[in-house]
């Protein structure tokens, strides 16, 4: 077995003069073995020593103890006639000890990686357990000082936005899709900012992006020769949302078909009566806005006259604001598959279901489970009364796109009634299903045919958007590239940002995200 020597614990190029234990710390005195040094100004080599002094450095821990290196440093005289520096301190290799450093290079590397992985305070707490004397501010300074490593010029990039603060401030992330790593964070999502960065990377051949028009415009101006690829996940999600919008536009016809066009306020519960009164107020606002639109007023004029927001006016004109009863997500939402399995197995007592749910981690009260059991019991009767209450548009869209073998009896009857009363929804559902199949099977030959078919259905707006972005959508169908990697890096960025309690500036976020890859 190779024997351990004191010199094995110190950086290369140094010899050990002494090693003593001072309480919880080991102090090792070392001296550089070189007889000469190079002047930092003129780079002349000299052996004339002027004086010596002691340099105290922190080093890697040893046997559970902090280690302090005491370096006997030397000052040399520069003999070059034209050199402005007469006396200089000897320099060491950059991978051993940097000028004016208080830590060895190997300890500084460890501190840097701790800062990248954990941030400030968590890394400082962990460093204390490792016997590394470093503060949280020092950790962040090291991360900022080293910054981001150099990156090779990317050929295929993905670009997307991320939230500094949701609905208020956004930034842009750019990823190298070939090397599967982020390469740049931009302070906003303005097209001009993205265009300026892309213009400095003329070698980029493929740009994968979301469906927004900002990045499309930036890529088209900065890299007109590059191929733009729309994100497949966003295409699928936009298609599903287009069908939901079609259901919302048809909610009046659905209410008529299902037998709930006329509502008796005397039969409503207190909560439903409040929603119904709000519905009547919304109907008055809808009528006023639609009347102005029929007279030829633009959206901007309607906003100025009525004081409503632009988004609200747009939704009213598109027929997306006509639900009577708006449902909220229940605390049982995540437990519904388990409850359905228990109900099918014969456990139909609300109290028993509640006791079993508590063992699954449910924190709600007995009343919530009992009401669910009562609704489920009434739903299975499928009488005429159960058809009078119209589900929300989101629920109808979900039931219409779910296999019939998974629906209850009342749900099946309700959906069959809706389909017979509103046949245009069946056509819209078939159009969206064809689009999903085209994306999954990569059948880009059907794209033009699908656009013409979709333009005559309830999803005209979505079809027009696909037609405007036809080249990028076609590339998304046939290309192997997509923005899924970028979405994953955004998830990682959110984790890093939350580790910093949301207070990290852009340079620190970028250094931690990119440096850790």
UniProtKB/TrEMBL annotation:
Domain Transposase IS204/IS1001/IS1096/IS1165 DDE positions: 157-253, 377-512
All residue ranges annotated as the Transposase IS204/IS1001/IS1096/IS1165 zinc-finger domain in the record: 37-80
Protein name listed in UniProt: Transposase
Pfam families, per the entry: DDE_Tnp_ISL3, Zn_ribbon_ISL3
Domain of life: Bacteria
């Amino acid at each position: 077995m190779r024997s351990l020597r004191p010199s094995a614990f110190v950086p290369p190029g140094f010899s050990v003069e002494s090693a003593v234990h001072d309480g919880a710390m080991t102090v090792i005195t070392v001296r550089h073995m070189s007889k000469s040094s190079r002047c930092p100004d003129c780079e002349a080599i000299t052996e004339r020593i002027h004086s010596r002094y002691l340099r105290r450095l922190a080093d890697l821990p040893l046997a559970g103890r902090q280690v302090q290196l005491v370096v006997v440093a030397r000052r040399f005289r520069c003999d070059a006639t034209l050199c402005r520096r007469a006396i200089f301190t000897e320099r060491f290799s950059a991978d051993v000890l940097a000028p004016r450093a208080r830590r060895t290079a190997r300890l500084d590397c460890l501190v840097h990686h701790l800062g990248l992985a954990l941030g400030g305070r968590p890394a400082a707490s962990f460093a204390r357990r490792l016997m590394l004397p470093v503060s949280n501010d020092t950790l962040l300074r090291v991360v900022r000082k080293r910054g981001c490593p150099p990156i090779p010029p990317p050929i295929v990039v993905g670009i997307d936005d991320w939230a500094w603060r949701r609905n208020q401030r956004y930034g842009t992330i750019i990823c190298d899709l070939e090397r599967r790593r982020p390469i740049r964070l931009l302070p906003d999502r303005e097209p001009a900012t993205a265009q300026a960065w892309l213009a400095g990377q003329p070698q980029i051949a493929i740009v994968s992006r979301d469906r927004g028009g900002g990045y499309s415009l930036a890529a088209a101006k900065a890299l007109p020769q590059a191929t733009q690829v729309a994100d497949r996940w966003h295409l699928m999600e936009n298609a599903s949302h287009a069908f939901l919008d079609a259901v919302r536009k048809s909610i009046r016809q659905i209410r008529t078909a299902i037998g709930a066009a006329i509502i008796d306020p005397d039969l409503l519960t207190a909560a439903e009566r409040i929603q119904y009164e709000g519905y009547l107020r919304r109907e008055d606002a809808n009528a006023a806005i639609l009347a102005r639109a029929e007279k030829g007023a633009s959206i901007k004029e309607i906003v100025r006259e009525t004081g409503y927001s632009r988004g609200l006016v747009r939704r009213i004109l598109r027929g997306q604001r006509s639900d009577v009863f708006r449902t909220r997500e229940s605390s049982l939402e995540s437990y519904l598959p388990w409850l359905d399995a228990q109900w099918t197995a014969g456990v139909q007592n609300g109290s028993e279901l509640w006791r079993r749910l508590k063992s699954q981690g449910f924190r709600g009260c007995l009343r919530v489970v009992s009401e669910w059991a009562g609704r489920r019991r009434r739903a299975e009767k499928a009488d005429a009364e159960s058809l009078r209450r119209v589900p929300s548009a989101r629920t109808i869209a979900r039931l219409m796109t779910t296999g019939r073998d998974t629906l209850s009896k009342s749900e099946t009857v309700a959906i069959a009634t809706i389909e017979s009363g509103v046949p245009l929804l069946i056509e819209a559902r078939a159009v969206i299903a064809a689009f999903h199949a085209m994306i999954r099977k990569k059948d880009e030959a059907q794209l033009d045919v699908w656009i013409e078919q979709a333009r005559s259905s309830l999803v005209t707006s979505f079809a027009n958007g696909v037609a405007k972005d036809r080249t990028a959508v076609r590339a998304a169908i046939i290309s192997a590239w997509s923005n899924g990697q970028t979405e994953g890096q955004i998830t990682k960025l959110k984790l890093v940002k939350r580790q910093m309690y949301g207070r990290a500036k852009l340079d620190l976020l970028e250094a931690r995200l990119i440096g850790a890859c």
